[in-house]
Amino acid sequence: MENTSNHSNSSQDIRDGIDLLSIFGKEKLEHIQKLISDVTGIAFVAIDYKGEPLTKMTNFTKHCASIRKNPICKRICELSDASGAIRAAVTKKTSIYLCPFDMLEVAIPIIIDDTYLGALVGGQIDCPNPPDDILKIEEKWILGNEKIEDLESKKELSSGKVLKYQEFVNSVKLVEFIITEII
Question: Which CA distances in Å does 32 have to 25, 27, 104?
Fold first, then answer.
């Protein structure tokens, strides 16, 4: 994946506490996120450098909303999102992975002057052909000996968007391009 960093002349401003909301404003950030989500079919939320949501979730699927009704499953989802975002922050590259509920997810870092400000985290995509070597955020990392199936049966994925892996990657590249151009 292409790095979404953009070098500007505002290095001092970044070090002085500039964040995503001060750059975009919440309303504009949510508007951009909604447009991107509507075009790609990928659910999104913007997070800050600490992993805290900055925007409301856009185009959340019924499948994922149902899973998150169980408090343990909700925490698993949050930890999965955080894992993807941490990987993107550390590598400063987009991270594509499968969540513990077998949905395709992405964390796209937002970097200005080599400073990680946050990410656009999204997905909730049913992918029929993920590559064998894709990162899998597995429930055993989170639950130990418990199984997700014991907490919540995997729901019918028909309420979510289905994309082949390359279609998802192409959508992600479009989002990376949009983020780079906006910054």
Answer: 11, 9, 21
**CA 129 from chain center: how many Å?**
19
Question: Which residues are 6's β-sheet partners?
Answer: 112
**Residues 24, 183: Cα–Cα separation, whole Å:** 9
pTM value is 0.82
Look at residue 22 and give its three-state secondary structure: helix
Q: What is each CA distance from 170 to 3, 11, 167, 181, in whole angstroms?
A: 15, 31, 5, 17
Q: What is the mean pLDDT of each run of 10 residues along the chain (183 residues)?
A: 45 59 90 94 91 90 85 85 91 94 93 90 94 81 56 54 95 94 85
The single-letter DSSP state of residue 125 is E
